[in-house]
Amino acid sequence: MYIFIIIFIIPFLITIKVLQKSSRVAIETRALSQKEDKEIGEEMMIHQALERIGAMPGHQHKEESLKKKKNIYAHNLLYLLGYSIIVVEIWYLYILLSNLISH
Description:
Blueprint (H helix, E strand, L loop, with lengths): L1 H52 L6 H43 L1
């Protein structure tokens, strides 16, 4: 009887406690995240209002253009890496086949 309690019931109770703790942490994290999102939203509204009345210089367009340039560079770099791997593999196959034919 004691073995049954040790093997089945105690791990079950531990699992329930862990799940309760994780759900409490998830609820606290969600509340904190919503609070931060609300504060960020308010700051963004104030920032946009100040830009519209001219109290703060606008800079969103510059950030977007820099982000596009970075994305294009990363995209081209990825293509270059992919094609260079393909070329190296084809070269390796050519050398392998030429060695097989010559022997």
